[in-house]
Amino acid sequence: MKLKIGDMAPSFSAESVNSGTISLEDYRGKKVLLAFGRYFGCPVCQIEFQMLQDMLKENVLDVQVIYVVQSAPDVAKAFAEEKGAEFPIIAVKRDGGKWPIYSDYGVGKFSLAALPKVAKRAKEAYSQGIVHGPKEGSETQSPAEFIIDENGKITYANIGLLETDKLLNALK
Predict the structure, then answer these.
(1) What number does CATH give the domain 32-170?
(2) When you count CB atoms within 10 A of the terminal residue's CB, does the N or C end of the chain come out lower?
(3) What is the pLDDT of residues 7-50, one digit of tens each?
(4) Distance set, CA 40 to CA 5, 48, 55, 144 (Å)
(5) Which residues on neighbouring strands pair with residue 22, listed in sequence order?
């Protein structure tokens, strides 16, 4: 499924590793950033997670964040505690060959065109001392971000690496 701006965001309810059960319906009336990573052993995902946290700490994101990841729940919980995550993290398990929530939002594999950007972001992570940990999810999984407005409609969709300038402009 390829979601477009103006589409209703697919509803979901899932257990988070740090905030109990998360239902998108509970966020009606609030703007939501639904962010997808691969898994927390991934240096690119670690640096993008930190970018989101930094934007929240600097108060440049006026939005509720929900983060979806393919790490095992215990790994995601330990990562959330170590990083002091203040937003829900949902650790999704593969089901019938698909990653629920990812497939609902049409978040699939990286395109070949994205590989140079991925390599650049990985180099940035390594230069900050971030190392690759255990592989848990799909190695070719693309990250993504969706902004969902107060009425449940998608107002921004990016399947690919986090682009902070575009994200911040979409939140204005």
Answers:
(1) 3.40.30.10
(2) C
(3) 999 999 999 999 999 999 999 999 999 999 999 999 999 999 99
(4) 28, 10, 19, 15
(5) 14
